[in-house]
Amino acid sequence: MLIDARTLWLFGTNTYVIAPDRGGPAVVVDAPPDPSGIGRLLAEHDLTPVAVLVTHGHVDHAGGIDGVAGPTVTAYLHPDDLDMARHPGEQLAALGGALPGGPPTVTTSFADLAHGDSLDLAGVVFDVLHTPGHTPGHCCFLVRDEGVLFSGDQLFAGSIGRTDLPGGSLDDLMTSMQEKVLTLDDDTRVLPGHGPTTTLATERTTNPFLRHLT
After folding, report:
1. Dist. CA 179–CA 185, nearest whole Å
2. Most buried pick, 32, 104, 180, 211, via CB within 10 A?
3. Which pLDDT tens digit goes with each residue over 34-79?
4. 71 Cβ contact list (under 8 Å, min separation 6)
5. CB atoms within 10 A of CB 1
6. Around Cβ 107, how many Cβ atoms within 10 Å?
7. Pairwise CA distance, residues 57 & 77, whole Å
């Protein structure tokens, strides 16, 4: 299986492409406001996107969706984050309004995600884990056959997603972690929305936010 990533836009968002092999259909995970960067990543492997899985509605993960989704590319998002994703300009204004590259609104129509969904996209099966806390509609995506978790802003190497933004809840995030993430195998590779790749085994023993949960 091919999994490749690029770190894009001002907030250093990890965008991933996943495909059975080069030269065919692919799935994109997260679309920051740099669709040209996503296009270059796809072109490097001669891939054609068929779906975009959006971990959550923050502008650095969903603000570029209009440049990737379309008639042949379905975008998926949990409905609890839909209003947030639709208004990246409001998010930028709340951050001071000085960040370039984000559209004022998003017009893409999203297909709904729900916890327990199993999506067969481009020949790869993604299990949907609804993990509220960073945002109400945050989701992680598990490729069970490969032991890979796309964790968005739920879990990072050595840290967790912030919960002080509108809709965030530390209690909810830690419940999601306990019930939906830490139940996975230790050797699960964690590919986060920011920063380096890690494993659940590493995070159980070194992440200061998880030690009391394990």
Report:
1. 13
2. 32
3. 889 999 999 999 999 999 999 999 999 999 999 999 999 999 999 9
4. none
5. 12
6. 9
7. 8
Please report, for the chain, how many H helices and E strands are present, in that order: 6, 14
Torsion-angle region of residue 123: left (phi > 0), alpha (psi -120 to 50) or beta? Answer: left
Structure tokens at 98: 């000085």
Query: Can you give the pLDDT at residue 102?
Result: 56
Angle of CA points 24, 146, 21, to nearest 5°: 15
Q: What is the mean pLDDT of residues 87-110?
A: 74
**Per-residue pLDDT tens for 114-156?**
999 999 999 999 999 999 999 999 999 999 999 999 999 999 9
Domains of the chain, with CATH numbers?
2-213 (3.60.15.10)
For residues 167 and 163, what is the distance between their CA atoms, to the nearest angstrom?
8
Residues 159/207, Cβ–Cβ less than 8 Å: yes
- Cα(51)–Cα(6) distance, integer angstroms: 17
Q: What is the pTM of this model?
A: 0.96
Do residues 136 and 80 lie in contact, with contact meaning Cβ atoms separated by under 8 Å?
yes
3-class SS at 2? strand
Amino acid residing at 80: D
- Cβ–Cβ < 8 Å for 16, 204: no
Pairing of β 159-160 and β 189-192:
unpaired
In angstroms, rounded to a whole number, what is the distance separating the alpha carbons of residues 189 and 142?
A: 10
